[in-house]
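Supplementary Text 2. Reproducibility record for the structural model of the 427-residue chain.

All settings were left at their defaults, and a single model was retained for analysis rather than an ensemble. We include the record here because the model underlies the residue-level annotations in Supplementary Table 4.
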Amino acid sequence: MESSTQAGAPDRRGELPRPRWFKGRNSARPPRKAAERDFRLFWWANAADALGTQTSGVVLPLLLLSLGYSPQTAGLVAGLSVGSGLLLGPLAAVPADRGARKTIMFWSALVAALAMGSVALALALGRLTLAHLLAALAVERFSTACHDAASRGTVALLCPPDGQPRAVARLAAADQGALVVGPVLGGAAYQLLRALPFLADALSYAVAALCVRAMRTDLKAAAAHSGDGLLREAAAGLRLVRGHPLLRLVLVWIALVNGVAVTLYYCTLFALERFGNGALPVGLVLAVTGAAGLAGSLAAPRAASRLGAARVLVAATWLLIPLAAALALANGPWTYGVLLGALSFLIPLPAIVLQSRALLATRPELQARAGAVLATAAGAAAALAPALAGLLTAETAAAVPALGCAALLTLLAVHTTRRSALIGASA
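Retained model, structure tokens:
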């Protein structure tokens, strides 16, 4: 197993130190202008992907409900669509770390475009079946898992260590910006024609494929692969995360917060639908949360620089608790919007800090595999969350999911406070 060096504290300018293994690797990085151009293409690929996903994702449960399926079924389908790609991600990370990063990203985006295009076509013809939808979602999620696994490590290969927090924040801002535009676009398009959001998703994957194809950097890490079997090489990421205290903290925090956020998201979606709100009002409420998340993503690097990364991590985690609990008392679209917006603003602050430190704690030739482990943990939580939200919404009082999430966040806040020294003291 490759060793890694734990990231240290930021200096007085908020810049991150270079780990010991970074020495001598500048020669492998492309020239600055080429790297900046390729990062812009990478950013546009991710932004297009995120926009399409949010456009179709917001209406998927509404589509199932309109077809006569229960909230439990809608939650189960949403969970399966996330969970179906979990096992493939760590395996796809191995050839990505070996040097096939661009090839995997291109073809996986193209296959996802075809899968979502088939859903749009079937809907337009009035012939969509649940089996077709499940199959298309499974293909799309498998492809997305491959794309995500291959894309990890791209920031480390294109950006110097002191530029990586800003790069991570820009990518997170694109995701949050998609949350602003995507739900509104999806809700409005769904009311015009149910196939339109899925067509938009297919086109977004095609744009992502073209952007990746236009990148000139080969995106290959310096070290060659070990020659071990596929499963053994895939397990290298798990061994790294398991043996590294900082990466274990990142895994626990991201997985639990991701599960809680998705649970609250779907509970809100089902509650708003039960109160008689259509696709457009739901999209507008979710757009408010996306705008708050965008603001949080943009504020994260400066907050970590001024307040200290450890303080931001601990304070934001504790503040999530009362907001989750307050959702138990929500009774209208704007109440949900305000509370989810506050949650969405806070979550990127520690998330970007943790992701930036995880990049520095991992060698470039293990970035995809270590990232796949973290993503699998977060994806497993996200896969269980919709089904859990559907079950709780149908079988219990509306306050139960929110109070349960608040309890989980309390446990996480205690654990994070105890382990916050791993982030490093502020300068």
